[in-house]
Write a structure and sequence with these properties.
This protein has two domains: about 15-60, Homeodomain-like (Arc Repressor Mutant, subunit A, Orthogonal Bundle), CATH 1.10.10.60; about 70-210, Orthogonal Bundle (Tetracycline Repressor, domain 2). Helix content is about 65%, strand content about 0%. It has helices at about 20-35, 45-50, 55-60, 65-90, 95-100, 105-110, 115-125, 130-155, 165-185, 195-210. The longest helix has 26 residues, at about 65-90. The protein is elongated. The relative contact order is 0.09.
Length: about 220
Amino acid sequence: MLLRMSRPNPRTRTRPTREETRDRLFTAAAAVFVRSGIAGASIEDICLEAGLTRGAFYSNFTNKDELVLAMVTEHGERTLAELERIMALAETPQQYLELMESPERRRDGPFGPDSVLYLEFLLHALRTPANRPAIAAMQRRWREHVATVVRRDAERLGIEPPMPAEEAAALILALDNGYLLGELVEPGSYEPGTLSRNLLTLQRLWAASTPVAAGDGRDPRTV
């Protein structure tokens, strides 16, 4: 006897999970924010981009600001996890910087391939004081991570840093942001590898101008 296999009804649609809905809203909002700016984006625009209803939006977020804060938190956590992964893989500062500036890293984070989104978050924080603490907390965690890298490198070289690790971390992130802004205004002005090359030059100058820690026979100029 032949068994007839039932065919799925093409009209039957599986409802997305809550996590899938949030992911779709995040992806759609990122595209709309880059295109129109956070201030100029409406909830209707985001829902249309995501192919979702306003009900789906409001079942996850009470308003646009709450969505923005959720995106900042999600991206910040993902970025920090990626930075920790890179730090665990890299055996030297050069390897760390090479991984940071790899095409995959630039493509996948911290806010996807379009850095305009990151700038939109910064502008939104400036224009909406209530949302500044979330952005500030994210930036502090990034500085703390970079400061940890700086301390480890100083320990590896056996030197005393000429400035506090926190200040060095702020300097490194300021350079990265400056290159980012320059590339956005003048595409092609930033050559991949520029940041790492310049930071390694600073590291060599740093090591050469700092006395070797007591009892350590290594040459601090050796990088």
